[in-house]
Amino acid sequence: MAVSDTNVSYVRTEMLAESAPPAREAGAVKWIRENLFSSIPNALMTIVSLYVIYVVLAAILPWMINGIWDAGSLNECREIRDARGGSGEHGHGVACWAVLVDRWDQLMFGFYPSELYWRPVLAFVLFLAAIMPILYDTLPRKLLYLTAAAPFLCFWLLWGGSIWAPILVAAGFVLGWAVAKYASPAIGQLGATIAAIVVPILYWLVLVGPLAGALNSVLPIGIQSVQSREFGGFLLAFVIGASGIILSMPLGVALALGRQSDLFIINKFSVVFIEVIRGVPLIVWLFTAQLLLNYFLPPGTNFDLMVRVIIMVTLFAAAYIAEVIRGGLAALPRGQYEGADSLGLNYWQSMQLIILPQALKISIPGIVSTFIGLFKDTVLVVFIGLFDPIGFSNAIRADTDWNGIYWELFIFIGLCFFVCCFGMSQYSQWLERKLAKDHR
Amino acid sequence: MATISEPPSEGFRISQLIYDTRYRSLTIQVVATILIMAGLYYLANNAVQNLAELGKDFDFGFLGNRAGYDINQRLIEYSNDSSHGRAALVGILNTLLVAFLGCIMATILGVAAGVLRLSKNWIVARLMSVYVEGFRNIPLLLWIIVIFAVMTEGMPQPRDFRGEDAEASMILGDSVAVTNRGIYIPNLVFTRSLGGNEMDEAGEAVVPSSSFGDLALMVAVLIAGFFASGFIGRWATAKQEATGIRPAGVFWMRLGAVVVPIAIVLIVLGATLDYPELRGFNFAGGIHLRNSLIALWFALSLYTGAFIAENVRAGILSVSKGQTEASSALGMRPSWTMNLVILPQALRVIIPPLISQYLNLTKNSSLALAVGYMDVRSTLGGITINQTGRELEGMLLLGLFYLATSLIISAGMNVYNNSVKLKER
Questions:
Q1: B33 interaction partners in chain A (CB closer than 8 Å)
Q2: Which of chain B's residues have a Cβ under 8 Å away from the Cβ of A280?
Q3: What pLDDT does residue A440 have?
Q4: Residue A357 touches chain B, beta carbons under 8 Å
Q5: Contacts of A383 in chain B (CB under 8 A)
Q6: SS3 state at B164
Q7: Residues ≥6 apart with Cβ < 8 Å to B251
Q8: Interface touch A299/B123, C-beta < 8 Å
């Protein structure tokens, strides 16, 4: 029995060492096979895309990288380019970024007095510091005091003038808060609420003007004042955009609540307001602000075009935000409303504590995309004679030094808008993920 | 015997208007009405006073007056002797034209980009993300100006097409010329036009032409063809449901119902193509698409297409994966899965935002101003207002036009929404 003698076992007693996966099933090769060349149409699409990317980059990259930064006019740029002996046959051999260096101040600040550039810069820093505690709730809550003061400080820094006017206007809010807090034992809660609205309005309308004048003559503290028409470039876009965003939010919430309200008159008024505003393009509203607003104001009034634009942009964005929030309100299950009622909360309590926090959370993407739209729409003011970045790009081209320069300015302006808007949308996605409580 | 004591009936007190929830809503509404009325009265009163002060009245009679300005692109007969009302109509048609063209192209771009962004191909998906994010985050106005600049600065002049070894050449078999003055494309003309041709002595048409009648006939025949095709489809489905067998060749019958009548009309009218050709310093013949139209059309389509892509993507993602798996488990082919399971559910999510994007496109077409395209805002809301000084009336009409358009479209959307809404019990 030869077999038993040799005692050969046909079963392995020890494990084989793991061998590496086949080269085509691992690492980059596998990834490329699966993602780029999984089938013939897929491979074709990959090749076409790569070719498109190559063509675009081959055209743009050398043009951008070899760009000239140091020149005083387009002709100088062309001379430098020709001196380099570069690819200058078509007249568009390399970019002339020098226009950005040369006109940087105009693109950023418009006609703002150059010795005062520190003021918009400081206001911008203040604005960033003020919105930080709103954007990130891990920051110390004490910073919210800065947030409350920031609008008045920014206003004062940008427009200048006496410090008393913004202080007295801010005091109106404090006055309203004080009335609401201390008057309620005397005249009841409802009376105090009404008084807290009426008293500051009367104060602003009647007292602030004379009081500011008086205080200013006693103690003249102020900085050089700057007219609205001197604003321009990205400063203008930021001022209109930020004011519009800040002012349209509360108005939008109010309109959304109005449209969901059971009160017939308020409901219909909100519906008509929202639909009329949304039905007509912003540009028509801006022309209305420019041409028609004076018809509807008392004879002889004439106020700042920029303020009119801010009012129109705010109303426009508020109508869109109202629709977004209405969607959020409608998406809440009925049980949330009934639960709030069964707890005995009144309308405002239930809205504030139960309904709005949830509805606003659902509406974040829509609200932020409305804000992005508003910020992009600030360029439309060029049509009514304000100098936003696009208006300045036209003005720069009208100058003989830079006549014929297009792409450098467009790319720069586009890039600035892209950074701001893309940042906003990324923040909203981050916030959405952070606030998501379900499907963990 | 139990006696039920009635609660003491109190008289109505004034404070109930505020503290009693039964009356409070009434109070609030009355106060709101008074405030709104007072506000409106204030505005109207100011307007009346201001108008009186400026010596203006409120009158739409100016619409009948001679306009006195030319419009370079017109779909209907118009000359500077026509009325302001006619100019407004030309503008409205131009707005609707660019909106219509834009909606079609934006839908094609948007659906393609939205589907490709979900592609498994990494490069294609990234490329589409770049397109979508780039167009969504940069103002439309900038895109319009950029495309206009590309057309006017980057394209060859008509004279470059001249000569034996010309620098530029026409594309698509010498039928389309892309120049810095716009794009010239062939025009469809008829030797036996319904509008009548210029005839020579032998009764032959000298110059083929086209008229409104030809166009209307073609559109009518086309619509009738689609109806007939739909009828055949329903007939086939009914037959299939009754007998279990779908009649053969339905697809070809439906195709024929659309194609054959229109082909007959084209032959009867004697259709030929009128190609653009270089004459003198410019191209003549064909249809001239001006740079303003091209810039506005492409920019609106690309911009709105990026938003539509996001809607399409969201719609497809909203159909849960289980639906696809279930339909595979039932043994359906991938194409059936797409057509019968995924698309019907995705469309319910996609269509409402899609229509509001169409609405946005129509409203955004008012940016035509940036490139001098003569839309309704430029004729009625621009030159007419400047010439007549009727800001109030002009802006009112302009606003009403846009408002009516958007309300009609939203009403249509509501009807659609109600018809596809999930019927929950």
A1: 265
A2: 363, 399, 402-403, 406
A3: 45
A4: no
A5: 369-370
A6: coil
A7: none
A8: no
**Which one of B51, B141, B152, B379 makes the best mutation probe of the A interface by having the most chain A beta carbons within 10 Å?**
B141
Measured torsion, CA atoms of residues B257, B259, B260, B263, in degrees rounded to the nearest 10: 150
CA distance A210 to chain B (A): 25
How do beta strands B282-284 and B198-199 pair?
unpaired
CA–CA separation, B296 and B148 (whole Å): 8
Question: DSSP of B197-265, one letter per residue?
Answer: -EE-TTS-EEE-B--HHHHHHHHHHHHHHHHHHHHHHHHHHHHHHHHS-PPTTHHHHHHHHHHHHHHHH
ipTM above 0.90? no
A383 touches chain B (CB under 8 A): yes
Of the candidates B238, B253, B365, which has an alpha carbon nearest to the alpha carbon of residue B299? B365
Which amino acid is it at A172? G
Banded model confidence at residue B12, pLDDT cuts 50, 70, 90 = confident
Nearest Cβ partner of A190 from B18, B29, B370? B18
A-facing residues of B in 350-379 (CB < 8 A) are: 363-364, 366-367, 369-370, 377
Q: Would the pLDDT of A110 be above 90?
A: no
Structure token digits, residue A168: 């007295």
Percent of all residues in chain B with a pLDDT value above 70, rounded to a whole number = 90
- Are the C-beta atoms of A99 and A401 separated by less than 8 Å? no
- Give the pLDDT score at B303: 94
Q: Quick check: B419 pLDDT over 60?
A: yes
Name the residue with tokens 């589409």: B128
Name the DSSP class of B178: E
Q: CA-CA distance, B420 to B366, in Å (whole number)? A: 32
Instruction: Count A/B contacts: CB-CB distance under 8 Å.
Output: 149
- A91, pLDDT greater than 50: no
Average confidence score pLDDT of chain B: 83
- In this prediction, residues A310-323 reach a mean pLDDT of 92
Instruction: Read off the pLDDT of residues A113-158 as tens digits, 9 standing for 90 and up.
Output: 888 888 889 999 999 888 888 888 888 888 888 888 888 888 888 8
Residue type at B378 in one-letter notation: S
Q: Six-digit token pair at B136?
A: 């969504």
Q: Kindly report the pTM of this predicted structure.
A: 0.85
- Residue B199 — very low, low, confident or very high, per pLDDT cuts 50/70/90? low
**How many angstroms separate the CA of residue A251 from the nearest CA in chain B?**
16
Enter the tokens of residue B240. Answer: 């299939």
How many Å apart are CA B89 and CA B64, to the nearest integer? 12
Q: What angle do CA A65, A67, A72 make, to 5 degrees?
A: 160
Cβ atoms of residues B84 and B376 within 8 Å: no
Residue type, A129: A
Instruction: Identify any residues that bridge with B176 across adjacent strands, giving them in sequence order.
Output: B171
Encoded tokens for A155: 């206003």
Confidence band of A51 (pLDDT split at 50, 70, 90) = very high
B198-199 and B177-179: which strand pairing?
A: unpaired
pLDDT computed for residue B343 by the predictor: 84
Closest Cα in chain A, distance from residue B251 (Å):
26
Q: Is B388 in CB contact (< 8 Å) with chain A?
A: no
Percentage of chain A with pLDDT > 90? 18
Q: Which residues pair with B277 in a beta bridge?
A: B284
Angstrom CA distances, B71 to A342, B79, B90, B396, stand at 65, 8, 8, 22
> Average pLDDT for residues A250-255, to the nearest whole number?
92
CB contact under 8 A, B391 and A35: no
Query: With bands split at pLDDT 50, 70 and 90, how would you rate the model's confidence at B309?
Result: very high
